[in-house]
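> forwarded from #structure-qc
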């Protein structure tokens, strides 16, 4: 998956032009910065920084992380409204990004986590956050499979798509489509009771919770 996204970094932003997604994107462009207003945000798998730019309108600072330097290099070229640091960091190894963030954001990342690794990933994310931090996770709904059908399901229930780059190289990419109850269950211990909110759009879902403590 990392190789696939590295290869796609120069043309990644084409996904933001898909006509059928425009209404949902406008909704997210309002909801995401609002949920992270006045927060020092740790962004996971930031890619080329489309959402870094949006969040910067309301956040106090952002640490935008990704494994693909090719993608992160595009972030500083965007008009950023708050201080933004970019860091090459593996979402499964967040030890070096520091702690005490009051917000966290991950878009189109959760769907790539194998089901068996979800709980560990949330534990590692929460270790970087301050008590009461706002967490926003956004990902594709199953409507995305109209463009990229599921090619295979493994024994653990993870689903996979075949993706072809402009150069004609094919990658098999793990891509899961969780329902609200799966997300709520995995953060139940850590979230402040009653704080979680799941919104299902046509092309994306939006999940918010506040960390307890
Ligand atoms: C679908 S893109 C999402 C980019 C951006 N968040 C967005 O919504 O447009 C997935 C991103 O995950 C990054 N990625 C893949 N494996 C990763 C890992 N282990 N740790 C951090 N980022 C990773 C890729 O480089 C890519 O930028």
């Amino acid at each position: 998956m990392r190789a696939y996204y590295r290869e796609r970094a120069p043309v990644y932003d084409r996904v933001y032009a898909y006509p059928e997604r425009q209404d949902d994107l406008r909704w997210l462009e309002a909801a995401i910065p609002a949920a992270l207003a006045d927060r020092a945000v740790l962004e996971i798998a930031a890619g080329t920084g489309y959402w870094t730019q949006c969040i910067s309108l309301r956040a106090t600072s952002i640490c935008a992380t990704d494994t693909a330097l090719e993608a992160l290099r595009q972030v500083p070229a965007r008009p950023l409204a708050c201080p933004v640091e970019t860091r090459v960091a593996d979402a499964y190894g967040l030890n070096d990004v520091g702690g005490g963030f009051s917000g966290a954001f991950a878009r189109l990342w959760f769907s790539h986590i194998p089901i068996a690794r979800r709980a560990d990933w949330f534990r590692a994310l929460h270790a970087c956050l301050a008590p009461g931090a706002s967490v926003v996770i956004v990902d594709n709904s199953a409507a995305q499979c109209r463009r990229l059908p599921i090619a295979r399901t493994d024994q653990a229930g993870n689903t996979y798509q075949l993706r072809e780059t402009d150069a004609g190289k094919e990658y098999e990419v793990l891509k899961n489509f969780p329902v609200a109850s799966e997300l709520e269950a995995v953060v139940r211990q850590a979230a402040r009771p009653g704080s979680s909110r799941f919104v299902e759009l046509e092309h994306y879902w939006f999940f918010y919770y506040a960390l307890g403590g």
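QC bot note: The two ends are 35 Å apart (CA to CA). Residues 2-146+179-210 form a domain with the Rossmann fold fold (CATH 3.40.50.150).
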